[in-house]
Design brief:
By secondary structure, the chain is of the alpha/beta class. It is 44% helix and 13% strand. The protein has a domain at 93-351: Aspartate Aminotransferase, domain 2, CATH 3.40.640.10. Bound molecules: pyridoxal-5'-phosphate.
Length: 452
């Protein structure tokens, strides 16, 4: 099992050949789900006492299970928040896998962590956070939100600023992972109504503050704001949030898991004003920054806040903790970790940051095109003016069942993968564009199928 003999070399060639074929595929297959029974019936059990051999196991994956596994980099995968990794990032993921690196501590992975930090520094500079800001790469925006909020809560607890059960202010449109982080940590959430677009504003926060009792106010340690709401792509009024946090000395968390990538666009900069005042900031390269899963960044204005909150204590960790080197394990809820920022770093180093700016601009161009098409087609109606790359719209005369049936038909016919959403209580369609290879023709072909 641990030798690299002739059969492993042959297997290596097969795996590399399969990987290269997959990476080069054009068009990329969409594929789709199957039932557990269908999957079972493909080959029966795969884990056996004597083993199948790598060639057979690979064949079963490639010819069977892979076809029941969707590719988010398909140019018509517009559901949720997909990702279309760059070729360089995908290729370097193979290198990370081949290298068996523990990315927990500096002593184990100094070179790799140094490079991850270079990528983090670029992300931090996009937000205009000060020199000295930093953090780590985690598995996703959910893990980033949890880590940022726990760090804030711990800081305020340490300072004796929380009287009772900790509480947090956030918008109704914040991502579900904020509520989940609060549930895990038993933080109470006070929901704030946004403005007409759903934006969290300083004014809305002040109004909520005025409604809270004195004991409730004494429990609030922070505000979780969003730079790119998942459902609509709307960016909160971060300058207003920052002002409010300063007035009441609260922790400011910004969830830019999806929308942070818009910071690369000079013409969108004003939307994000105030983000530079965040205490913690999440941005996911595995959403709109072309890195393979799983790669999200959590960045702190003062990383020592996170070190105090997140460093795990154990006899066998005493020495690494004492060194106060840059130990990624100390900046989030994790210990063992893959150096998941490296494929992103490699891609940035390969193509340069201008290529990122331009690729994101392409996705915004296609968003504008889709928005115009929705406006021009009499059977469609835009629900909200897009700020980033999400388009939410209604098909006149359709109810929930129509959206669901249409989405299922598109997938069955391998045309596209889309999912309906609910906006302001009404079922609608939502597209999220993060793939620069999506074309105007893709948009037209999909919208055309809504006509009858
Ligand atoms: C704004 C926002 N925050 C957090 C998340 C959660 O990220 P992940 O799925 O990487 O945990 C998402 C996912 O779409 C998101 O859009």
């Amino acid at each position: 099992m641990h030798e690299f003999g002739e059969s492993e070399k042959k297997l290596a060639n097969s795996i590399i050949e399969y990987s290269l074929k997959r990476i080069a595929m054009d068009p990329i297959p969409l594929d789709g789900p199957a039932t557990p029974q269908e999957l079972h019936d493909l080959y029966g059990p795969n884990i056996t006492e004597k083993g199948l051999g790598g060639e057979e196991a690979l064949k079963r994956f490639a010819d069977g299970y892979a076809l029941a596994t969707m590719s988010t980099d398909h140019p018509r995968f517009w559901a949720f928040v997909p990702v279309a990794p760059t070729k360089a990032a995908t290729l370097f993921d193979l290198v990370v896998s081949a290298s068996c690196i523990s990315g927990s501590t500096w002593i184990e992975a100094a070179g790799a962590v140094y490079l991850e930090n270079e990528a983090l520094a670029w992300l931090s500079s996009l937000a205009g956070m000060p020199q000295g800001a930093g953090g780590t790469f985690v598995s996703g925006g959910s893990a980033g939100n949890l880590s940022g909020l726990v760090t804030g809560r711990e800081k305020y607890r340490r300072l004796g600023r929380i009287q009772g059960r900790p509480a947090l202010l956030t918008s109704r449109d914040a991502h579900s992972s904020v509520a989940m982080a609060a549930r895990i940590t038993d933080i109470e959430v006070f929901l704030v109504d946004g403005d007409e677009k759903g934006k969290l504003t300083g004014e809305a926060l002040r109004q909520k503050w005025a409604e809270l009792s004195e004991p409730d106010r004494a429990r609030v340690f922070g505000v979780a704001s969003t730079a790119g709401v998942t459902n609509t792509g709307i960016v909160d009024n971060l300058a207003g949030v920052a002002e409010f946090c300063t007035e009441h000395d609260l922790w400011m968390h910004v969830d830019g898991a999806y929308g942070g990538a818009g910071l690369t666009q000079p013409e969108l900069r004003d939307l994000y004003k105030g983000i530079e005042r965040a205490d913690s900031f999440v941005i996911d390269p595995h959403k709109w920054l072309f890195a393979p899963f799983d790669c999200a960044a959590i960045i702190y204005r003062d990383p020592t806040d996170a070190e105090r909150a997140m460093t795990q204590e154990a006899a066998y960790l005493d020495d690494v903790n004492k060194e106060r080197d840059w130990n990624p394990a100390s900046f989030a809820y994790h210990l063992s970790r893959r150096v998941r920022g490296l494929p992103f770093w490699f891609s940035l180093a390969t193509y340069g940051t201008d290529a990122y700016r331009d690729a994101i601009a392409e996705t915004l161009k296609i968003t504008r095109y889709c928005t115009d098409q929705v406006r021009q087609r009499p059977y469609l109606e835009l629900a909200i003016e897009p700020e980033l790359s999400v388009v939410v719209f209604r098909r006149s005369g359709w109810s929930d069942g129509d959206y669901v049936a249409w989405s299922e038909k598109l997938l069955k016919e391998q045309v596209a993968f889309v999912q309906p959403t609910t906006y302001r209580g009404e079922r609608m369609m939502r597209f999220c564009f993060v793939n620069p290879r999506t074309t105007e023709q893709d948009v037209n072909e999909v919208l055309d199928t809504m006509a009858d």
